[in-house]
Amino acid sequence: MRVSVIGCGHLGAPHAAAMAELGHEVIGVELNPDTRRILESGRGPFYEEGLDDLLAKHVPTGRLRFTDDLAEVAEWADLHFIAVGTPLREDGRGYDVDQVVGAVGSLAPLLRRPCTIIGKSTVTVGTVARLQEIVTSEAAGGVDLVWNPEFLREGHAVEDTLFPDRIVAGLTSNEARKAVEEVYAPILARGGVELIVTDPQTAEVLKSAANAFLSTKISFINAMAEVCEISGADVNTVAYGIGIDKRIGHAGMRPGIGYGGGCLPKDVAAFTHRVGEMGAVHAAGLLQAVEAVNDSRMDAAESLVEQALGGPVAGAAIAVLGASFKAGTSDVRNSPALRLAGRLHAAGARAVIYDPESNDAARRLRPDYTYADDATSALDGAEVVVLATEWPAFSKNAKLPAAAADVVRRRVLVDVRNAVDSDAWLAAGWEVWQLGRPVQRPRA
Ligand SMILES: NC(=O)c1ccc[n+]([C@@H]2O[C@H](COP(=O)([O-])OP(=O)(O)OC[C@H]3O[C@@H](n4cnc5c(N)ncnc54)[C@H](O)[C@@H]3O)[C@@H](O)[C@H]2O)c1
Question: Helix 98-107 crosses helix 127-138 at what angle (to 10 degrees)?
Fold first, then answer.
């Protein structure tokens, strides 16, 4: 099929590359000239596992191209994916849907032949109905609108797009269903992937509910970490023990500094506002509690650093390992790691940040913080090492505890992701502080 992907950011760029990998001819439409130029050169504008490989494979052959010319794409494509951003409004009261309304509103009048618009951006209930009105009044006949929310995990965006666990399509016509089945045919033919066809409003709620549940799970185990901090219990053992129950499971149950990134914080905030507005008071109350627990984790993390230092952070030399909001991506939007570094910086610490992939993105967002170009420089002379993003290079690197021990001033690790296996660090003479766990000290 001839496919366009409108908006080539963290969702759209991997989606465009994956559609080319599935065998479609693809044009990505991107307004930001810097992003577009990098994509045109066959590279990703940010780090995302596997993205560079697919771009290097499909851009040189012309199977995947990039443009800002919407008119050309409107003439050419059978199907248009909408993957533009839906940031939180400045007042926090729901999404700013200007990009989605703008993209559909610009595309619709240019469409002169039957085709399908498939929205992938995350929107709240009622947005698709508003977009349908635009399509009905502006586009020629035979243009269908489908809402096909995306469930990919950043850091696994390519893999999750090519091997999704489900495809949800909110639609209202047989033609639209056929288009969805055709564009995803190679995935559906493999089997084991359920295509859930529903109405647009159910697709909207389903996506919001999925992110609300993931956030609830994270806030739940973080609330249990608070209980463990007070009672002296060990939250890692609690998480492991309850997760054995298949109704609970282990996924998403690691305690830490809370969820972040370009999706969960704004999606939970927008959904909380929308369900409150609709009068779903209990749903709103539940989600407000989820957000409150998440917000509280920053205080818990800063307090853990103070406890580990044995005093205030002002003046302390602190190495912060990690800036991206999670491992596998260079995305620093709403990153808890960077926020914690900022809290330490504001409190007067000499915090030095190092991230293997997101130093540049972090520098652009927060040029006022201090960065090191490698882990050793960040660790040099540190009184406390804060593991802020769970990159395997930090959390699973068996050589790091001994190597870091040689350059720090004190062997004190504060792991705010509860990501390390503490035995290796204890063996190298480190104290290990984790959220919701008693401190672990090396044997004398
Ligand atoms: N990032 C994720 O992991 C993820 C996962 C699931 C769903 N989503 C949803 O996908 C949507 C996009 O998120 P993102 O993280 O990719 O955002 P992003 O900001 O990284 O990307 C959006 C891109 O769209 C471009 N754009 C805006 N208007 C345009 C237009 N009219 N024509 C062409 N390009 C345009 C912007 O320049 C930007 O590059 C959001 O609704 C988000 O909630 C994201």
Answer: 20
